[in-house]
Amino acid sequence: MAASSAAGSYDFAALGTDSGELDRLQLQASRSARLELALLERFGLRDGQTVLDLACGPGVISRLIAETHPACPVTAMDLSPELLDAARAEAAGAGLERIRFVQGDVYAPPLEPGQFDFIYARLLFQHLEDPLRALQAVRPLLRPGGRLCIMDIDDDWLTLVPEPQGFQAFTEAAARAQAQRGGNRRIGRQLGRLLEAAGYSDVALHVETVSSRQLGMRAFLDITLGFKRLLLSGAELEAAAGTLAAAEALVDDPQAWALVGVFLASGS
Q1: pLDDT tens figures, 182-199
Q2: CA–CA gap between residue 206 and residue 192 (Å, rounded)
Q3: Most buried residue among 27, 143, 193, 204 by CB atoms closer than 10 A?
């Protein structure tokens, strides 16, 4: 069987510097950071643990963990050298020189086994062609009793109220495009089963509803729709133009709501 692409359905370099993707990633992480931190602590993050931020992107969550848990040695790993450069620069600017940055592939992490108490994978598994193999590759990195926590999405839990005409067709087109690249925009519902199949114990699955009232409608739309736009091109993107314009108009509608279900799965 051919090896799965490490990048899966997400390749930062291929998106180009003019895509605005780095800004979107930083916004996505920073606007939800405090909510995420509370959820991670609920799932077992404690000061003094050795922590791995798997697929750290621009490092917003790595920095947050290092700032709020100063006794935690934090390792931040990502496949993209460009994102790691951005993460290093941001960490240095914040005076967080103790974060260790590692370039690595989730299917073959270049890390010594048995060294982490807590591993966090944020919005990674929706992009992976072979999530089970990734879970099996990551599991040896945990110490006995250590815990992996995954945060990801399931697009069937994304709702805009009022819903723009064509919104379901737009999300389905984005899901097909991501699937063609090896991803799965409905990975959330599968995470518990996958963790058990990969040999993790004490598996838990929780769904947290995040709304536009928490993030602001502008940030909510940028976070949830921005990458979907990048997945489409040509006729499909043209067909979605009216839907996206109607979604943008919700920013100025004080009665509009938007909600998404965020899946958090964990296992030891």
Answers
A1: 999 999 999 999 999 999
A2: 10
A3: 27
In a domain, 54, yes or no: yes
Domain CATH for 261? 3.40.50.150
Calculate the dihedral angle through the C-alpha atoms of 119, 123, 127, 129, rounding to the nearest 10 degrees: 30
Which amino acid makes up residue 242? G
To which residue do tokens 């062609």 refer? 129
- Spatial contact of 112 and 137, defined as CB atoms under 8 Å apart: no
The closest of 156, 154, 170 to 225, measured between CA atoms, is 170
- Rounded CA-CA distance 197/133 in Å is 10
Is 220 within the bounds of a domain? yes
Whole-number percent of the chain with pLDDT over 90: 75
Asked if 187 and 125 count as a contact pair (C-beta separation under 8 A), the reply is yes
Residue 5 falls inside a structural domain: no
pLDDT tens digits, one per residue of 203-252: 999 999 999 999 899 989 988 998 898 899 899 999 999 999 999 999 99
Asked whether residue 2 is assigned to any structural domain, the reply reads no
- Which domain does 116 fall in, by range? 12-267
Token output for 247: 């979604």
| Whether residue 164 has a cis bond before it, omega within 30° of 0 | no
Domain tally, the chain: 1
